[in-house]
Amino acid sequence: MKVETISLQGTAQWNEDALVINESLHLYGVLDGATSVHPYRGPNNETGGYLASQTIRQYMQSLKTDAGLETGLKPLVLEANSKLREAMLEAGIDVTDKQSLWTSALAMVRISNNYIDYAQVGDCMIIAVYKDGLIRPISRDQVAPIDARLKSVLREHIRQGVASRDELWACIRPMILQNKTKMNTIEGYSVMSGEPELADFIEYGRFNRIGLQSILIVTDGLFLPGADSEREADAITAMAGRIADMTLPGYAEWLLRLEQDDSECVRYPRFKISDDKTGVWIKW
Predict the structure, then answer these.
(1) How far apart are CA 249 and CA 255, in angstroms?
(2) What is the pTM for the complete model shown?
């Protein structure tokens, strides 16, 4: 088994993504932290999104025994979510206020001889690639419908002549604030936020390794620009195909150049010039 990883910082001050590599438990994954609406800075000026992903990563990588993992990864994700809640309480965060919560998306796998256990929260993705060429998204981008609505608003403002990234951000900020109130609700999306309601919205399961050639696990910063929820499966397949052709680091560098050439986020409507880009590619 060969494991290739990458984690590149985007245009924000902190890389809020994180890698999880726990080789002793055959546990691999990615995390995508998101800064709270009400700004928080840690003792070293860390953002809440950075602290969220690092808190979860440290817990996952500290595990030395597979006790409790026999039935899958859901208990592990819930325990990590509790650790995040504890960290926020220690920092004085009001955990009843969704706008103040540190949050993170997650995609995780645990590899066994004959099968793969997985868990997913938010918009990180898990893709299986088979020896016959089939590319199979294992997870669903739970944030895609919300992002599609936001990007539709961005495109409309661009058609009306808005050509500045700062102006575009101001147009959608109220919608983003409203979306935060829908975290871990049936009307919204799942996210690791320390909220116990996450237990009802984790996606998890098991698939077998028959014919499996590789597994790709990525944060949304590696998604192809311009994709929307109606074309999600095609976009995920196209991304995986490009990574296979270009290697994971090569694809990430190509995508960074593409984004830098559209620094006002007009050609490919999005929320920042370059998002953090983290991925794990496991090959047999």
Answers:
(1) 10
(2) 0.91
